[in-house]
Every structure is written in C-alpha cells, then in structure tokens.
Amino acid sequence: MVPLSWYLVFSAALFSIGVFGVLSRRNAVAILLGIELMLNAVNVNLAAFWRYGDVTQMAGQVFAIIVFAVAAAEVSVGLALVISVYRKRSTVIADEIDMLKF
Amino acid sequence: MTTETLIWLIPLPPILAFFLIVLFTNRNKALSHIIAVGAALLSWLGSMIVFLRAIGVEHLGEHPFESSINWLPTGDTWFRIGILIDPLGAVVLFFVSITIFMIFLYSVGYQNFGQPDGDHDVKGLPPHGATIEEHGRKHTVPSVEPMYSRFFAFLGLFAFGMYVLVVSDNLLTLFVGWEIMGLCSYLLIGFWYGKKSARDAAVKAFITTRVGDVFMLLGIAYLYSVTGTLSFREIFTEDVLHTLATIPSGVLGFSSAGLIGLLLFIGTVGKSAQFPLHVWLPDAMEGPTPVSAMIHAATMVSAGVYAVIRMFPLLSLDPATMTVVAFIGAFTALFAATIAVAQNDIKRVLAYSTISQLGFMIAALGIGAYVAAAFHLVTHAFFKALLFLGSGSVIHGIEHGALHTGNHHVDPQDMFNMGGLKKKMPITFWTFLIGGFALSGFPIITAGFWSKDEIFADAFAHHQYLVFATLAVAAFLTAFYTMRQITLTFLGEARTKEAEHAQETRWTMTTPLIILSVFAVTLGWVGIPEHFPLLGGLVPNWLHEFVGGTLAKHPEAVEFSIVPLLTSLLVALGGLGLGYLVYRNVNSAAEDKLQLVFLKNKYYFDEIYDVIIIKPVTWFADKVVYQIMDKGFIDGVLHLFGPGTQGLGDTIRNYFDLPIINRFFGDGSANLTFWSGGKLRVIQTGRIQNYLMLALIIFLAVGAALYFFVLA
C-alpha cells in the first residue's frame, strides 16, 4: 500500500498551490478556484487519515462529505457575490474591489 | 431478617419516637408515652433477638455480627461506619435494652400519668399537686408533670444515643452516640429548668463531661492519624497494635498506644465521673429520678466504662497507662465511698455509690481483669437502676405523705425524714433491699457478690495488693453506707408525719422494680468461677467464656484463692452488720457520728474547683478578655479603623486614583487608541489579497515561533 506520508505530501502540495493561487491571482473567480483546491487538499487528508486509522470509525469519510457540501455552498455564494460585484463595478479584478477600505 | 439488618434497626425506634413526639404528638400525653414506651419495647425486642442469636453463635469473638457502609469520602478511600456485635457488645446490649425499657415504663408512673393537672403547676418546675373534690371532701393528690411529652421525647433521644454507641463498630459513631447522650443529660438534668439548682447542675454536667470529651476527641484524632482507621476490628489486629505500641508519642515517654489510651481514658473519666471529674454526677440528681437511673445505671456512665473496656486491647499495650487507669479507678472507688457515708440525700448516696462502683470497674480494667470489669458493669447496671428507681419510689411515697399533711417544706429526699417505710411500701422495700444487698455484695445469692468477688480474685491473682486492699476498704464502706441507707429509710419508726402517711406507688413503678430485682439476684449465676467451693462447676462459667472470646487472646480464668473470697465475705457482711448496728438507733442527723464536715462537703472539691478554676477563669474572662482585650484592644482598634481608613481613602483618591487611574490610564488609553487607530488605518487597504497575505505571513511567523521555541 502507498505509505501515508505520500498522501500527506500530495495534499500539502495541493494546499500550497491553492494558497498561491488565492494570493497571486487577480481574478476573483480564480481566487475561488484556489480556495477549492485548499479544501480538497483537506479532504485528501481526511480520507487518508481515515484509511490509515481505525477503519470502523466513519468520522473521516463523513467529515469529508460535509466539507464537499460546505465547499459547494461556499462557492455558490462566492460566485453570486462576484456576479453581483461585476454588475455594479464591471470588474472581477480583486485589487479593484476595495470598498471595504476606510 | 438477617441479624445484621436487625442490629442496624435497633437504634431507630427511639429516635423516631423523639421526632414524632417533638413534631406531632407533643400535646397528647397518652399518645406520646405510648410512642416512647412502644419504641423502647421494639428496641428491646430487637436487642433480645440479637442477643439470643449472638449466644447461639460459636466463636462469636472471631466472627461477630458486623456490616458497614461507606460514609465519608477521605481522598481515595472511604470512611466506613457500621455495626458490630461481638460478645461484649451483645452483653451490653442485653442490659442496656432491659434497663432502658424498664426506665421508660417507670417514667409513666413517676411523672404521674393519669393524675389531674396541677392547680398552679408551671412548666419547668416539678408538679406541686392538684386539689380534687371527692365525696364532698377536698384533698390533694399528685398532679401530672406539665412537660410530660417532652420528657419522653428526651428519653427517646437518650436511648438512641446509647444504642448507637453500643452497636457502633468504630470510634467515631461511638463518639457521636456519646455526645448525643451528653446533650440529653444536659437537657434532662435541667428538665425542671425553673429551679436554679437544676440549671446549674445541667451546665455543670455538660461542661465537666466536655472537658473529658475534648481529650477523647484528641485521642480519636491521634489514633486516626496514626492508623488511618477508627474501626475496632481494624485497630485490634496484631499489626496495627504492634505499630501503635512501637511508635513513640514524644510525650512523657508514652508510646502512641499509651497516649491514645490515656486520652480516651480521660473521656471516660469525664463520662463515668471518675476522680477528678466526678463533681458533676452528684449534682445531676437534680433531674427527675428516671433520669438519674438512666444516666447512672443504664446508659451514660456505663458508656464511659464500656468505651474503655472496648478499647482494652489498645490500653493494655502500655503498662504506664494501665497503672494510671488502675490508680484512678481504685482511688475513686475508695474516695467516693467515703463521701457516700456522710450524705443524707437518698439519691446522693446512690450517686456517690455509682462513682465508687464505676471506680471498681475501672480499677478492674486497669489490672487487666477484662471479664470482671464487664461482669460488674452488667450487674451494676441492673442493681443500680433498681436502687435509683426504688429511691424514686420512696421519694414519691414521701411526697404523697407531704401532700397528705400539707407540709411542703419537708425535703422528700432526706433520709432523716423517712424511717419505717418497710410497712408502708413493702414492694419498694424488698426490691430496694435486694438491690442494696447486691450493691454490698451479699454473699452467694446476689449478682453483685459474684462480680465484685471476681474483681477481688483478679486483683489478688495479679498481685495487685495495693489495688486489692483499696477496693476491699471501698467495698466495706459500700456495704456500710448501703445498710445505713436501708436502715434509715425503711427500718425503725417513722421520723416524720410525712413518712407515716407514705404510700406504695403504682404498678407502673413497682413492676420495673420487681423485674430488675430478679436480674439483680440471678444475673450473677452466669459468672460463677469454676473452682469456687461447692457451687463452682454446677453451672459453667458462661460469662467468662463468652465475653473473654471478644479478645484475640482469651484471658485465663484466675486460680481460685481463699483470700479474696474471705475478704469479700468479710467486708460485705461486716459492712452490712456494722451499718445496721450503728444506725439502728440514730434518729436525726445530729446523732450521726459520721457527719464529718469534710465528708459532708465532699472534700471541698466543688469549692476547690471554684477557687482554682472557676474564679480565675471568670476573672480572666471579665478583666482580661472583656475589659482589656475586647473593650480596650479590639474596640480601640476598631475605633482607630474608622478615621484611619477614611484618611487612607482620601490619600489614595488624591494621590493615586485621580492622577494615575483617571488621567494616566483612563484618559491615556483613550488617547492612545485614538492615535494608534489613526496610524493603523493605512494598512486597511480593503484589498482581500493584502489581508490574506498578511494572515499567511503571521500564520507562518507564529508557526515558526511555535516550532522553534516551544515544540523543539
């Protein structure tokens, strides 16, 4: 069987790519994609720990499914916000959306 | 029902009776005494069943009835309480339950149940009598006690305390029962609280026994700290006893066993009225007579002796302690007997006689005569309860005479106001005679002879000649003052009109007398030594085998010797004979040659205590504690506090609160926040990626710090 550390290295890499995407991309939709990557990295971790831990305890899998659901909900809300912003300001570039500024 | 369950239940009826009477039936005299006497009857029945089952068990000493439950959590373990009936417990339960029941029954008659309410009786004073009209003639009859129900409630609580003490398997619940009885003796001695003498006596009894109890509690605490347990069965194992005997206490060269034994013994000295804490007991006569019997025979003073007998395996570890015990016992026996000779109050004679007899038991224990002490405890409980109840009957008879003649100034307890009561009160006379003879140790037929003889035999066999001689003199005096009492009270001619008109009391009072007198005679037969001439071996020495089985090492029955037997015969018969000869013709206190002034005044012990303890203590309390400490020091300090704190408050406000708290911290923090807010606003760019970048940097910085400084 593939050792656990491989999964962890993989998910850490995935997470890092996600972080990089969130921080470096200027497009708000791409930022949401980065967030998705980070969430999926977490899911890989959850599934891997479940598999290598006590298999009879279903918490790892169940938790991963909950993360799916949350991610789907979050992305739908996020995209709705992006569309709403685009309608008002005609832009999806994150740097230009600085309405939070004092 | 298992025997263990039954033993748990024995103390219950009296305490239930107490609460029922106090809470619900206080106004109904008949119901109250039915509840109380019924409760005593139930406990008696339970005790009898337990006793009968106990004597049927072989080797009860090794396998007693016991059961215990967790009570107090003490760290990882529990402090357990429970019940234990071993041979000693069974025998004590036997006599306690019978005497308590008899006393309850007797109280119904003594407190004049069924008589009309008094003309001018008030609560807190003895009833004065009521006038009734019969066949057109007015005459005075005894009136019922105004606080009749309360009396039975207190008796119930008292009985509860004693039962708790007897069935306890550990020192702590024993002490609880012990203190309940201390409280009850206070309440009952002061039952007629309208009399100053009764109030004083109650306080005196309470405080004097408290002196002993404090030491006893110290002993219990010390024992617990050394052994970690208070259960008798756990303490009296060889390991624990060995530990106790070897650890030095650091006080006067006693081992811990010796010191603990001594402290517990001081508790007994207080409770059983041994020298030098004996002073409360004669004054306790202020209470109603059933109370005197309760305190002196059945329960409280027996409890003291019971406690030391119980702790005998511990006491006997240190010879120094045993010497102290033997000395105190023997000295008290003689000392109290001499005072008893010069007392004229019928109950006070008995009170001193009780002190003296308890001294016999303590002395017996001190010389290692375990069984003899227990034996005398049992027989003494019966004949002393009998004598007290008999004296109550006599007093009632004389009071009846006083109601008849209308002379209320005559003291119904003064023996010189009596005489010739033999014909007027035959049942009281014969039962009192039996009790008196048992107390004197009249040979062969009375119980007192056998138990006292066993003490003599033990003292002689253990070569304790000093104790032996002291006790012999005390026994002689016992017989002497007993005969003096009987002669003055019952024999000869009536010396007052009241005595002429005395009348036998009612069946509720005489029945207990008859029953107790049966025991006062027959009870000695269970302990006849095996080698006694003629009688020995006819009945086996059951008591010795049975009670001796309580100890891990069964005590050997002593060799028969003619010397103690002759001594015993001589002092008993000699004392009785001399008493009769001397007092046959004495008609007034003035003719009594033995009214020596220092005996009459009880060796001035009350006065000595007054001078060396009470006066200095009240002086100290008044002058030092009240005047100097309280008024001068404490009040002075308090008066200083007012202005002082105000000045301090002002200073703090002006020099600390206003500049530092208000200006510096209060205003300063607001200014600082305002200023730093202005500076920090520039990093609020409103760009999400700037925030995330900042979050990542801080996360990494904190993570790195944690990794290098905390985890690594």
Keywords:
heterodimer; A: mainly alpha; Helix Hairpins; 3 helices; elongated; B: 712 residues; two-stranded antiparallel ribbon; 4 strands; globular
Question: Could you explain the architecture of this structure?
Answer:
- The complex is a heterodimer of chains A (102) and B (712).
- The mean pLDDT of chain A is 89.
- Chain A contains three helices and no strands.
- Chain A has a single domain, classed as Orthogonal Bundle (Helix Hairpins).
- By secondary structure, chain A is mostly helical.
- Chain B is mostly helical and 712 residues long.
- Among the domains of chain B are: 386-599, no CATH class; 608-684, no CATH class.
- Chain B has 28 helices and four strands.
- Chain B has helices at residues 3-9, 12-25, 29-56, 87-110, 148-167, 171-189, 196-227, 232-235, 238-246, 256-271, 280-283, 289-298, 300-310, 312-315, 319-341, 346-366, 370-405, 421-424, 426-440, 447-461, 465-490, 497-500, 507-522, 542-548, 562-583, 597-600, 605-680, 688-711; strands spanning 65-74, 77-85, 130-134, 137-141.
- A two-stranded antiparallel ribbon of chain B has the order 1-2. In chain B, strands 3-4 form a two-stranded antiparallel ribbon.
- In chain B, helix 3 packs antiparallel against helix 4, helix 4 (87-110) packs antiparallel against helix 12 and helix 4 packs parallel to helix 17.
- Classes of the chains: A mainly alpha (102), B mainly alpha (712).
